[in-house]
Amino acid sequence: xxxxxxxxxxxxxxxxxxxxxxxxxxxxxxxxxxxxxxxxxxxxxxxxxxxxxxxxxxxxxxxxxxxxxxxxxxxxxxxxxxxxxxxxxxxxxxxxxxxxxxxxxxxxxxxxxxxxxxxxxxxxxxxxxxxxxxxxxxxxxxxxxxxxxxxxxxxxxxxxxxxxxxxxxxxxxxxxxxxxxxxxxxxxxxxxxxxxxxxxxxxxxxxxxxxxxxxxxxxxxxxxxxxxxxxxxxxxxxxxxxxxxxxxxxxxxxxxxxxxxxxxxxxxxxxxxxxxxxxxxxxxxxxxxxxxxxxxxxxxxxxxxxxxxxxxxxxxxxxxxxxxxxxxxxxxxxxxxxxxxxxxxxxxxxxxxxxxxxxxxxxxxxxxxxxxxxxxxxxxxxxxxxxxxxxxxxxxxxxxxxxxxxxxxxxxxxxxxxxxxxxxxxxxxxxxxxxxxxxxxxxxxxxxxxxxxxxxxxxxxxxxxxxxxx
Length: 470
Ligand SMILES: NC(=O)c1ccc[n+]([C@@H]2O[C@H](COP(=O)([O-])OP(=O)(O)OC[C@H]3O[C@@H](n4cnc5c(N)ncnc54)[C@H](OP(=O)(O)O)[C@@H]3O)[C@@H](O)[C@H]2O)c1
Prior knowledge:
Elements: E1 2-10, H1 14-22, H2 27-30, E2 34-39, E3 50-56, E4 61-72, E5 76-82, E6 86-97, E7 100-111, H3 119-142, H4 152-159, H5 162-166, H6 170-177, E8 191-195, H7 200-211, E9 215-220, H8 223-237, E10 242-246, H9 252-265, E11 271-274, H10 292-314, E12 318-323, H11 347-368, E13 374-379, H12 387-392, H13 394-400, H14 407-419, E14 430-432, E15 435-437, H15 449-469
Parallel strand pairs: 8-9, 8-11, 9-10, 11-12, 12-13, 13-14
Antiparallel strand pairs: 1-7, 2-3, 3-4, 4-5, 5-6, 6-7, 14-15
Helix pairs in contact: 7-8, 7-14, 9-10, 10-11
């Protein structure tokens, strides 16, 4: 048997350290040998939870199956690992020590026959690896990552346009993730609203935020689907603090009613994710007489966020995440063209114009609300394989199927903007793959300050008109 023992100390509450380390999905963030991990069992992390972790070997990789065999919250977790090469028992104990958390990690490896004979030769290397992994865990828990900046490679790709577009595919995600830093911030007690949580990116976002312990309010429009999503997420993650609110977000009366309900409840909002959206191939009007792309993609998130400003401010430090689209790179802000008429309607153009406008709104809010402690950022997910893309863009979906991101990959930057400590230090940026990116790939799409000002006045004006309709 080879035994590794290491001790680290971290200036964080014991419970937060325990929650992070006991959830073995985090291993790729701190153990350089682990590159893929998932939880196999449903429910909260606890006694009997199972994980699969894929680790690099000098040649190839190995799948380890972990089961939690002892679980005493904030004190001790023991995991039994099995693989074809070895069995291991990882015992991690946690204790408060002079305002810090002391973590003692012991791993006992027993190689299977005929590899047991190699134990003597492997011992030193394994002990070195154990030390490095524990330093990684310490760094992850210290959670003092630098503020996000664009890498020189991404800046070059953006300047060259086509490489910039190639980053929208799953290759961009895979390239980006090589440089990502651990995300160990605790979301317990953080109240987060996600719109459009019934499918695609919104559902993937809700699932991950639920797993991380956030208190979730999921905005959906179909009551049966909403109930099913909430129940599924509770079962899957063991997080009981998930509920839904119903609203057809293309109707301003529904948006207003939703905002009024939340204002009446009066609970501060830590994060608002404006994700709901759709690309309408045909021109259409809502029951309130608004062109539907404009209503759903721009006026709705604008109006909801404006109305919830008091609750965002009340949180002290809060975040707004606006989900836009890379399609907006093709369009310049033209306020007089935001509400398309039936004669000049093209679905993808109307969609892109609204997303461009929401990006500008993001920058304006970031400035206006900085003193209120509200950071506002936009993100675009690249191209992700969601029901929305499959329905609205069937030809694009068929052509690009092999290079599309999964919904989880597309949602990663939304989750990072909601959860990562360093993401709370920047405001008014557009992100892709956890990096702030340019808002213009083409110089012809740059708007002037008068047009930006016009946009904000235009949206405020709509507030009055739509209220009259309601
Ligand atoms: N997937 C991509 O590649 C991609 C690329 C760029 C930007 N985006 C953006 O990402 C966001 C999510 O899209 P997705 O790809 O995940 O599409 P999706 O799977 O179709 O999800 C869209 C979500 O928005 C909701 N929604 C649509 N209309 C609504 C309404 N009137 N009221 C309330 N909720 C409504 C949908 O609810 P229902 O289930 O009730 O329809 C669904 O939950 C959108 O803002 C989209 O523009 C996606």
